[in-house]
Design goal:
The protein is an alpha/beta fold and 114 residues long. The chain is built from five helices and five strands; from the N terminus they run αββαβαβαβα. It starts with a helix and ends with a helix.
Length: 114
């Protein structure tokens, strides 16, 4: 499933649009960035409420393809600029992390619809 398909399935807003629309290889949910560095998988999505520049830095470090920012968090300009520089998609949803995680798990593992 490509990044734009993930955004559509989650009914999420694409907030940083300058990225390559690659296949997303799973997802990881965490608000603790050291946890993300230790356990997130290459090419996946990061589901979080952490909407700041450091989130982008960590995503870049572990090769995250898309940041899924939950709870309609405001996105600072410096975060979006950093994501643009790194080619990381940023999408935002009103849903919480639990709901988004469940929807993506269903899409990636059970072949169901979100």
């Amino acid at each position: 499933m490509k990044i734009t398909e993930v955004a559509a399935a989650l009914n999420a807003e694409i907030c940083q649009k300058e990225f390559e629309d690659v296949e997303v290889c799973g997802a990881y949910t965490s608000d603790l960035l050291s946890d993300v560095m230790a356990y997130a998988k290459d090419g996946g999505a990061l589901i979080t409420i952490q909407a700041h520049k450091n989130t982008v830095a960590v995503a870049s470090l572990v090769n995250i393809s898309v940041l899924v920012i939950c709870n309609s968090r405001p996105l600072p300009d410096d975060m979006l600029e950093a994501a643009k520089d790194e080619g990381i998609a940023v999408i935002r949803t009103k849903e919480n992390q639990f709901t988004v995680s469940g929807k993506l798990w269903s899409l990636f593992n059970a072949g169901g619809s979100a």
